[in-house]
Design brief:
With 425 residues, the protein is of the alpha/beta class. The chain folds into two domains: 3-314, Glycosidases (TIM Barrel), CATH 3.20.20; 319-424, Immunoglobulin-like (Sandwich), CATH 2.60.40. The protein is built from eleven helices and 21 strands. It has helices at residues 3-10, 47-60, 101-116, 129-132, 139-152, 173-187, 204-207, 227-235, 263-275, 285-289, 301-313, and strands at residues 15-16, 23-24, 30-31, 34-37, 64-68, 120-124, 159-164, 193-196, 201-202, 216-219, 243-247, 279-282, 321-323, 328-330, 340-344, 349-354, 359-363, 371-377, 384-391, 405-409, 417-424. The strands form four sheets. Strands 8-7-6-5-4-12-11-10-9 form a nine-stranded mixed sheet. The chain has a six-stranded antiparallel sheet with strand order 13-15-16-21-18-19, covered by helices on one side. A three-stranded antiparallel sheet has the order 1-2-3, with no helix packed on it. Strand 5, helix 3 and strand 6 form a beta-alpha-beta unit. Helix 8 (227-235) runs parallel beside helix 9 (263-275) and helix 9 (263-275) packs parallel to helix 11. It is elongated, with a radius of gyration of 22 Å.
């Protein structure tokens, strides 16, 4: 369990930073979103299973858990009406405008339990099936339901609202808009709101200019080679809003045309998202599906390596970094083996992700100090190696800097690598 994440939650609901690039807590401290997908958390996990899951994810370094309040089995498996929770309570008493108090008492408990462990619960009021397909929600009852939820949880600090639910809003815009406006009226703007679309879409395509959309969420599903351009394009929109890859390709997922989804593919998705200026939500296929022995999947390699991802990414002032592919003189590659980079806005440091065994030529003169210290980090294991200290060509006493580029190669037997560049005088 990370003391800083508990402190952030206790400081109040997260907000969008003044520059629109990232999240902060109520005290203005940068908040690092590392999400996990547990769609059936409120509806199907027993209390004991939910406690075990939330505790383990907090220990692993996750900060946000995505789950659905009115859940019916997931896309392609939905029941005509949202199913009951482990205790037999359904979320609605026949109509979304009539929430079931017994059901939401369990939600109350899980919110408190998560808050004690420093976790934010990013909650979908409903799966999109009940808007687009079943038409259970209308603009009228969606607004009433949203307002009830917002008012009930107005004082609960560890909440983010996710509108949508694996659907595009086309043809149902007024219902989704009413749900968002109800949430906002109910909680008085206490919590952030986003929208979860379906495969290879972004909330920005539908809602970016709407005032209730506080940050963008992307789903790429099987299109994992497109993660970097998808995230980067949303970070460039105006007004600037944080970007979360809310659903990529799940670890061990069997149904992906671009599979298998190995821990390496999981890491690539996370690092591409981060180096494009966004935030990542992980998912484990059998865990969210609650497949046979699903509770044994809490410690899969991908999940454990997400903790390393956060540790490496936050070891530097990540909130002062911007995407900069200009660090590459050669070897940037593309698509499935894309290499990516971040640079601090002061140009006194950088982070480079090499997604495969490769060679890259880097512009060391992009670092505006006299020398740069290089450290290799293995994102699979956390192992660090000294990469040497080199002249950058800057501060030489001449009128113009001296261009300095240097080749770097992924260390032998590493699947991928992170290079940390720190400016030194």
């Amino acid at each position: 369990m990370h003391a800083e994440q508990i402190a952030s939650i206790n400081a109040g609901p997260i907000r969008v930073s003044a520059d629109g690039r990232h999240f902060v807590d109520a005290r203005g401290r940068p908040f690092f979103w590392l999400g996990d997908t547990a769609w059936p958390l409120f509806a199907q996990y027993t209390r004991q299973e939910a406690e075990a899951y939330l505790s383990r994810r907090a220990e692993q370094g996750f900060t946000v858990i995505q789950g659905v309040l009115a859940w019916g089995g997931g896309t392609g498996f939905e029941t005509p009406f949202p199913g009951p929770n482990y205790a037999g309570h359904v979320p609605w008493l026949g109509d979304p405008a009539r929430p079931n108090e017994a059901y939401f008492q369990h939600v109350d408990y899980l919110l408190r339990y998560a808050a004690e462990r420093g976790l934010i619960l990013a909650m979908l009021p409903t799966w999109g099936y009940y808007v687009n397909d079943a038409k259970t929600l209308t603009p009228q009852n969606a607004f009433a339901y949203g307002r009830w939820l917002g008012a009930r949880y107005r004082q609960q600090p560890n909440i983010v609202w996710i509108n949508g639910g694996d659907r595009i809003p086309t043809g149902c815009e007024e219902t989704y808009r009413a749900l968002a406006h109800g949430l906002r009226e109910g909680d008085g703007g206490a919590h952030l709101i986003t929208y979860h679309p379906c495969g290879w879409r972004s909330s920005a395509q539908f809602w970016h200019q709407e005032g209730w959309l506080d940050f963008n969420m992307i789903e790429t599903w099987t299109q994992w080679p497109k993660v970097y351009p998808a995230v980067l394009s949303d970070t460039l929109l105006w007004p600037r809003k944080p970007v979360v890859l809310g659903e990529g390709a799940y670890e061990n997922g069997p149904e992906y045309p671009l599979g298998p989804i190995t821990p390496l593919i999981v890491r690539r998705q996370a690092w591409w998202t981060f180096t494009a200026g966004g935030f990542f939500t992980y998912g484990q296929d059998q865990m969210w599906r609650m497949g046979p022995q699903w509770t044994s999947t809490f410690d899969t390699p991908g999940a454990l390596q997400m903790g390393l991802f956060r540790k490496i990414a936050t070891s530097r002032p990540w909130w002062r970094m911007v995407p900069d592919q200009g660090l590459f003189d050669s070897g940037v590659s593309c698509e499935r083996t894309l290499n990516t980079a971040l640079r601090t806005v002061e140009s006194d440091g950088a982070l480079v992700y090499l997604s495969s065994q490769c060679h890259v030529l880097l512009h060391l003169d992009k670092i505006l100090t006299k020398h740069v210290k290089v450290t290799w980090v293995n994102p699979q294991t956390g192992e660090e190696r000294d990469g040497g200290t080199f002249a950058t060509g800057n501060l030489t006493g001449t009128v113009f800097p001296q261009p300095q580029s240097r080749w770097f190669s992924t260390p032998g037997h590493w699947e991928d690598a992170v290079l940390l560049l720190e400016g030194v005088q």
